[in-house]
Structure prediction request, 97 residues.
Amino acid sequence: MDFRRGAALSEGGKPIIALTSWTAKGVPRLVPFLKQGAAWSPPGHTSIMSGPSTAWPTFLANLPQRAHALIEIAHPDDWETLERACYERFHLFDAFH
Prediction:
């Protein structure tokens, strides 16, 4: 929250979370589910960047919209797994790619 607050209070500041698509060991960073009991949601007005993909604003997005947007910035090798999990969780599917 300090990061978000600092960026928001800076003139023209925007909080952005930037990460690589995979860890150094080749494990995807964007996964369909967190471990049981874990919870994380970027604060409003925060953008997420992964690899060469563009940032995505999370403000006012519902869960299926967040899932779709995160799939779009995931590594292409991970799209099928993430799309399948999105369909199973929300019973929604779009041919994103």
Notes: The CA atoms of residues 29 and 35 lie 13 Å apart. The first strand starts at residue 16 and ends at 19. The mean pLDDT is 78. The beta strands are 16-19, 47-50, 56-57.
